[in-house]
């Protein structure tokens, strides 16, 4: 008995793109949710000055936010542990700089307390981070 060929004449030459689109949309959703979380730093309104030096290297940064909470990098720290934690991050505390970012609404007493704590820990090179003063056109 002769065999009948059951060729339908179509091949699987088309790629099913639906699973690919599903995966891309899930990845897009994940990135949209995590992107705001990944932004570095604590929200601080820096004081404005005329002289600003741009920092290109990664440094140890101490931040005081509007609520006068203290952070090393992005992690909160108690004022009593500040000196020991900073010394642990530096290889040469007497020469390596520590950058201090403070909100412009923070009272000077809080800034002075942090500076004093760093000084008592043996850290001698502390720089205050500011942002450039924008030039205003003269209005007459």
DSSP, total strands: 7
Beta-strand percentage?
15-25%
**Main sheet: strand order:** 4-3-2-5-6
Question: Structural class, from secondary structure content?
Answer: alpha/beta
Q: What is the CATH C-level name of one domain?
A: Alpha Beta
Assign the CATH topology of one domain: Nucleotidyltransferase, domain 5
Helix content: 25-40%
N- and C-termini, Cα separation: 106 Å
Instruction: Please tell me the overall pLDDT.
Output: 79
Low-confidence stretches: 136-140
Q: Under the CATH scheme, which architecture of one domain would be assigned?
A: 2-Layer Sandwich
List the helices and strands and how they pair.
Layout: H1 18-38, E1 48-49, E2 60-64, E3 70-72, E4 75-77, H2 82-89, E5 98-102, H3 108-120, E6 126-128, E7 131-132
Parallel strand pairs: 1-7, 2-5, 5-6
Antiparallel strand pairs: 2-3, 3-4
How would you sum up this structure, described in words?
With 140 residues, the chain is α/β, with parallel strands linked by helices. The protein has a domain at 48-132: Nucleotidyltransferase, domain 5 (2-Layer Sandwich), CATH 3.30.420.270. Helices cover 30% and strands 16% of the residues. The chain contains three helices and seven strands. It has helices spanning 18-38, 82-89, 108-120; strands at 48-49, 60-64, 70-72, 75-77, 98-102, 126-128, 131-132. The strands form two sheets. The protein has a five-stranded mixed β-sheet, with helices on one face. Strands 1-7 form a two-stranded parallel sheet. α3 links the parallel β5 and β6. The chain is elongated and about 100 Å long. It starts with 17 loop residues before the first helix and ends in an 8-residue tail after the last strand.
